[in-house]
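[audit] Reproducing an earlier prediction to check determinism. Same input, same settings, fresh worker. If the tokens differ from the archived copy the diff job will pick it up downstream; this log only records the rerun itself.
[audit] input (329 residues):
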Amino acid sequence: MRFIRLSMLFLALLSVGRSADPTFKVATYETEWRDPARDRVVPVKIYYPSDAPAPCPVVIFSHGLGGSREGYRYLVEAWAAHGYISVHVQHAGSDIDAIRGPHMAENFRKAVTDPSNAINRPLDIRFVIDRLTALAATDAFPLHGRMDLAHLGVAGHSYGAFTTMAVAGACIPVLGGHPLHLDPRIKAAIAMSTPTMRGNETDAAFDAVRIPIFHMTGTEDGAPGRFSSAIVDAVVGNTPPSARRRPFDHTRHAIAYLLTFTGGDHMVFSGRMTGQRAKDARFQALICSGSNAFWDAYLKNDAAALRWLETGGFTAVLGKLGAFEQKHP
């Protein structure tokens, strides 16, 4: 079944334009790093183009609630094949290890309502950037000489989009209501299914966001399945589909894009393992091509990619599958 799904996705990739075709061979490297300041272990899985000319821009990815460094393979492999080093971070406390067990719904509720998870997630991202910076000067590190950390992006889905927006400069109530976690080393970001939080409904909540951000959602992108009623008062909120566009609408000082899939739900972005929907492969191919063009434009300074994204190329391949919006400060 996995082979069939990958074949369908590959065929869809071939049909969606200039940035979709795989170019490089993808290799992986797994490790765990310990942050002594928090006495916290941060597992990572790095996808990288093994035969690409070095150095390559780096993208750090943050998974959703209940995820792990093993998920979202369709996306991070597409980035690596396109010439990016993708560092997939696993967040203890809100990962699969925190959710699994006989009382999954209750574990889910505890994980999403625990403010320490919201606090630790952006700190994990900062720690990983620090760690990569230190290892870049270490000959023994397998990716020594391969990383272009001057061109660094961050991306995430759901709780990972919360994390992404935090390090991009959004003011989030549970994090103190000010851009405490803004990291100036990040040059661009992609946020998929960003949750909303009471207290950041205004333009001012996003005024510190000054980097280009590509937002993605769908018209059915509500809280996932049977957990929706369990997280009404959660730290990251119980977000209806119509509210997923709020960060895009309230951004005033940064270039922003918004992709909304018609009929796209919350789990299409994660590359669900079961219950595939008819449009999943086409949606995911568009996620890959659109995000690669975005990274090319803002991490590789590729003018052709920017034109394709902004002047009709991406909209043409999107067709009736969704809507694409953009705004410039």
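[audit] rerun output stored. Observation attached for the diff report: The radius of gyration is 18 Å.
[audit] end
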